[in-house]
Amino acid sequence: MITTTGLTKVYQSRGREVTALDDVDLQVREGEVFGVIGQSGAGKSSLIRCVNLLERPTSGTVTVDGRDLTALAGRGLRAGKELREARSRIGMVFQHFNLLSSRTVQDNVELPLEILKVSGAERSRKALELLDLVGLADKARAYPGQLSGGQKQRVGIARALAGDPKVLLSDEATSALDPETTRSILTLLRELNRALGLTVLLITHEMDVVKTVCDSAALMKKGKVVESGTVSELLATPGSELARELFPVGGHASGPDRTVLDVTFHGETATQPVISQLSRTYNIDISILGAAMDTVGGRQIGRMRIELPGPYEENVVPVGFLREQGLQIDVVDDNPSAAAADGPALAEEAAE
Ligand SMILES: Nc1ncnc2c1ncn2[C@@H]1O[C@H](COP(=O)(O)OP(=O)(O)OP(=O)(O)O)[C@@H](O)[C@H]1O
């Protein structure tokens, strides 16, 4: 639904060049919620603004629903007719809602329809239908100043849906909201994604947002996409930074000469008693140092950090056994000296 190829954006800033996007190839499939995560300055906003041509990329192409937007004329407010039409099929939700305070909630939702020259009666019908969809049917006559942050964002979402878009772009839509409101807005985005078959591209700096709502994700650093894929694919990628952050597991080796493994469970392997099988088969004691389980896209996925006695060279066969069970195993390069410093002290406390 959205494809970028070689997308590059270089800003001229006070006589020097800032490369905000550096050869970004991204593929967002129809009907998925795709999250782009990265730290401040990574280029997320530039990406989303280039996807709907609010910013014209320096080079590269953006195709949305089979249409090459970069081939259409104009940019930003000076977009040509074809680009404006294509853009009306792309909704956008903003971090700070961008509502007009002097207009009622209903009139805010009607605004894009006015621009599309939809008749008054049809505008009103459509706006009320959308407000109902986002759970704000009773607030049509209220003004933005009378609403909570979460309600304002619901209005922002209703307005973004006014042009019946196939794609919704979300620019940190929940960053200004408290955790509970964030959850309710993410739930709404997920419901709209399912009910309307809406493709959602969201940018965020919060891993929890990706974990809660995304089917796929990309990690951006310094203008580049350094990892991307479905959440399941990422979790199955050894050494994936996103996977590690999606399912962080803590815990250090309890002493030197231990093998610490991160075990990732997918789907049916999550329910198999592999750890106890391992213990029985090789007659070894296994310590669980940390674990995180979750359901992502209806599949049970999780991670567990375990410790086996002995250095890695002595555990090659048990590690192979785990891999044969379909588990993904990452050997953690733990710092035994730091861990050893903790270990005996804790053991003494326990003895006391
Ligand atoms: N209009 C602009 N002119 C010059 N430089 C810009 C402009 N917009 C962004 N940049 C620079 O491009 C880089 C990427 O910025 P961008 O806003 O895309 O990142 P971001 O990941 O969205 O960060 P944040 O979460 O802080 O908004 C930064 O170095 C930023 O300073």
UniProtKB/TrEMBL annotation:
Keyword Cell membrane attributed: yes
Keyword Glycoprotein in record: no
GO molecular-function terms, A-Z: ATP binding
Sorted UniProt keywords: Amino-acid transport, ATP-binding, Cell membrane, Membrane, Nucleotide-binding, Translocase, Transport
Signal peptide (UniProt feature, chain positions): none
Domain of life: Bacteria
Residue intervals of the ABC transporter domain: 2-247
InterPro entries: AAA+_ATPase, ABC_transporter-like_ATP-bd, ABC_transporter-like_CS, ACT-like_dom_sf, MetN_ABC, MetN_ABC_transporter-like, NIL_domain, P-loop_NTPase
Protein name as catalogued: ATP-binding cassette domain-containing protein
Source organism (scientific name): Streptomyces chengmaiensis
